[in-house]
Design brief:
It is built from five helices and eight strands, in the order αβαβαββββαβαβ. It has helices at about 1-25, 40-45, 60-65, 140-145, 155-170, and strands at about 25-35, 55, 75-80, 80, 100, 110-115, 150, 175-180. About 30% of the residues lie in helices and about 20% in strands. By secondary structure, it is of the alpha/beta class. The termini are far apart. It is globular. The strands form three sheets. Strands 1-6-3 form a three-stranded antiparallel sheet. It has a three-stranded mixed sheet with strand order 2-7-8, covered by helices on one side.
Length: about 190
């Protein structure tokens, strides 16, 4: 009977959505914008006010700086943007829902470093030991990770001075500069 079939399909869809929700609660992500150019749109999305920094790096540097971390595998890849009205996330690939976003976020050009705590039986759905954990600490080699540090375009002068002092104190030989996105164009 077709009504019974549709009821089974709806039930399966509901269970799938529940499973994805649980998977998200067992996963941790670190996101990066992989644009060739600095994005004016990203500053107000990720900082409140005018006081913030952005770290410039590369994919290879990200991979290299975490290679000694061995508690969990870290999956690194670009986010897949989909039209949720016309496309379906394929079933059978557990991590795909964790690296898929709506097309309306395509401007982020996001790369995600993802830890899925369920791998190798290290965490259980029924007893998620990370249920109330807001994040995981992953040691990174900042000297390898960081290429350049940008201070937000509207930041006060003291913030640039403070960030430079911190870079000097921790002996990071990395350039610190204020974003020029707020500067006037050349005429």
């Amino acid at each position: 009977d077709s009504e019974e079939t549709w009821a089974q399909i709806r039930d399966l869809e509901e269970k799938s959505r529940g499973f994805v929700k649980v998977q998200r609660q067992m996963s941790f992500a670190n996101s990066w914008c992989v644009s060739e150019h600095e994005s004016a749109a990203m500053w107000p999305l990720y900082i409140e006010g005018s006081e913030g920094i952005a770290v410039q790096s590369t994919y290879n540097h990200l991979v290299e700086c975490i290679k000694k971390y061995d508690e969990f595998n870290i999956f690194i890849g670009k986010i897949r943007y989909m039209d949720y009205n016309t496309e379906v996330i394929p079933v059978g690939q557990l991590l795909l829902p964790l690296i898929t976003k709506r097309k309306s976020f395509e401007h982020e050009i996001e790369l995600r470093a993802l830890i899925w705590t369920q791998q190798h039986g290290k965490n259980k759905i029924v007893d998620n030991k990370f249920a109330s954990t807001l994040g995981l600490s992953v040691p990174v080699d900042l000297d390898v990770l960081i290429e350049k540090i940008y201070v937000s375009p509207e930041a006060p002068d003291w913030l640039l001075i403070l960030i430079q002092a911190m870079v000097d104190r921790f002996q990071l030989d990395k350039p610190v500069k204020q974003s020029d996105l707020a500067s006037d164009p050349l005429y």
